[in-house]
Amino acid sequence: MLCGGKKSYFAAAVCIITLTSMVTLSYLRLQRLSYLPKIIQEGSRCRGKITNSTITALKDNRTFIISPYFDDRESKVTRVIGIVHHEDVKQLHCWFCCQPDGKIYVSRAKIDVHSDRFGFPYGAADIVCLEPENCDPTHVSIHQSPHGNIDQLPRFEIKNRKAETFSVDFTVCISAMFGNYNNVLQFIQSVEMYKILGVQKVVIYKNNCSHLMEKVLKFYVEEGTVEIIPWPINSHLRVSSEWHFVQDGTHIGYYGQITALNDCIYRNMQRSKFVVLNDADEIILPLKHPDWKTMMSSLQEQNPGAGIFLFENHIFPETISTPVFNISSWNTVPGVNILQHVHREPDRKEVFNPKKMIIDPRQVVQTSVHSVLRAYGNNVNVPMDVALIYHCRVPLQGNLPRESLIRDTTLWRYNSSLITNVNKVLYQTVL
User: Fold this and answer.
1) What is the pLDDT of the chain when averaged over all its residues?
2) Residue 157: helix, strand or coil by DSSP?
3) Which GO terms describe its cellular component (predicted)?
4) Is residue 116 scored above 90 in pLDDT?
């Protein structure tokens, strides 16, 4: 016997720890082996149909593929952003076809359902597969089984395969535009404010919007500012306009917002220095700096190694207006005129104040809406005297009288440029 003859408790404890360690290491070694790619076929051609849909349902109808991304930050893997049923999806495999030798590899996937599912049966998931060592596959297929015919499986392009230099400094990710969205004036004002503050790209996961909003989006797409990602999630799942599950038979919260945000991070990982995660009615307003570039340079200098910067949300109720900047031509445009809303609700210390983020996408693995779930970099809570989120919407403290609100005209610092730029867009689209 390995531990025979040992009389003391100490020796017995050492013996038990040694045995446990040996068993654990053996188990981990076997686990890793089970995820290694295996050749299942040779001399084939990659003939599966390439899909360009934003959301693709697998045959089990419990798994939905958004997009695969190459990720070599820890090991050489394909990370597929998807949506899965948190209980029903137990096993998935990545099928890689390596050219020119035509070898087909299958890797068992690790299915990592994000922790912020908020009770819904479906949630954002990372489907992660080790790639073959001697191959840099350009496409991957996802299947429940390690057996079958690859020609019958849809193929997805693996993005981020080639390293790129940053084409922009700031990309704003907005998800998701739904509910026949028609807040045209505020949307244009937000985009023009983003541009004034240093944004070069706004990515919108669009479910639906009004005809008038379509005209505005078309203008911005042609201008090169906006990129539209079609987001027909309600064609696949019963969606909720709430963020938490309320036992109403829906499948996923807030039109799959969390999945879209994660996809947007990976989509822009190699092309944008920073990614900004906020909604169309939110603007991160710097108080000490003229724009985001100088603000972020200062914050990074003060916080070396940080990759996630969180900004306080402050409500500017659209029900409380100031009779300035009442521009007559804007009155015919549907939506809120943010320049007339410069009173914010006071902070409630006992109530959680959700934050929004500017992140270095290369330091983020998984994100939720108001915080990052997994990352390599540190978090920084940006003080309110440096910047705050101007959030113009229906009030959260609707019973407060006007005199209890805080007058904050920070937005007016940009009024001249903002009015000029908004007028240019309106005259080319709406007016």
Assistant:
1) 92
2) strand
3) cytoplasm; membrane
4) yes
Question: With b meaning 16 or more CB within 10 Å and e meaning fewer, what string describes 57-95?
Answer: bbeeebbbbbbbbbbeeeeebbbbbbbbbeeebeebbbb
**Residue at 6 is within a domain:** no
Bridge partners, 188 (sequence order): none
3-state SS, 221-274, equals HHHCCEEEEECCHHHCCCEECCCCCCCCCCCEEHHHHHHHHHHHHHHCCCCEEE
Q: What pairing do the DSSP bridges indicate for beta strands 355-359 and 272-277?
A: antiparallel
Residue 418 lies in a domain: yes
pLDDT of residue 9: 63
Predicted confidence band of residue 155 (pLDDT cuts 50, 70, 90): very high
Q: What pLDDT was estimated at residue 247?
A: 87
Q: Please name the residues in contact with 23: beta carbons below 8 A apart, sequence gap of 6 or more.
A: none
pTM of the predicted model as reported, rounded to 2 decimal places: 0.91
Q: What stretches of 72-138 adopt beta strand conformation (E)? A: 77-85, 93-98, 103-108, 110-113, 122-130
More confident residue, 42 or 306: 306
Place of tokens 């220095």: 273
Listed residues 157, 191, 220: the one ending a domain: 157
pLDDT of residue 1: 42
Mean pLDDT of 196-222: 98
Q: Are strands 226-230 and 201-206 parallel, antiparallel or unpaired?
A: parallel
Task: Give the count of domains, the chain.
Answer: 2
Whole-angstrom Cα distance, residue 91 to residue 254?
26
Domain containing residue 345: 168-428
